[in-house]
What does this fold into?
Amino acid sequence: MNVTVKYFAVCHEMLDRSEEEMDLPEGATVKTILKRLEEEWPEIAEFYEVMQMSVNWEYATENTELTEGDEVALIPPVTGGSDV
Amino acid sequence: MFKITTEVITGAEVREAVEGPDAGAVVLFFGTVRNNTDGRAVRCLEYEAYPPMAEKKMAEIAQEISEKWGLDRVAMIHRVGKLEIGEVSVAVAVASPHRKDGFEACKYAMDRLKQIVPIWKREIWADGAAEWVKPDAVFFDAPKPHKTGSQTD
It folds into this structure.
């Protein structure tokens, strides 16, 4: 199945791309994507602790199952608004 | 109104979105770009968002406010792109029959926005250096990946 994976802010910068299509096996979860990213960039695992994932605009866990056409995103710690 | 925009925020857009004859108060909050962070001079800020998810999460915050205070007219708008010192990055408006609930709900909206709405801020320092703002000090001293894929943007 194909899913779209989006990278924002520091993830975008570190991976040098803002999104990509991934062809994943049936039964894949968010963790499948994280494992694949680790192959390209092992140090990313250090940041999983502070990073969140979303599937179809909703926060997800690494066990969230994926289906064809899902939109997945790596969400670095959010820092919107102002410091007041 | 729950919106990510590249346009200048005046405040009129959120105020007009919440006003009505039963409101005794409209509480407006503006977040603005400050010229320093912990004393270090800031030249400007850049904001990036995940717009569809950000707008969905803003709507969820409004739903939480409806459940906690019974206030149904909340509007939030956040600007993205490069913002100069003094410009408005975010505006929140809450209409309420009485001011106390409005103030509380507006503060709540901003607190939650900073927790769950996917928006990121990058500081461009006066000396030209730039870095993503980090709630976690460790996070952003990240090494570059070993190789990079094809660019899609």
The beta strands of chain A are 2-7, 19-23, 52-55, 58-60, 71-75.
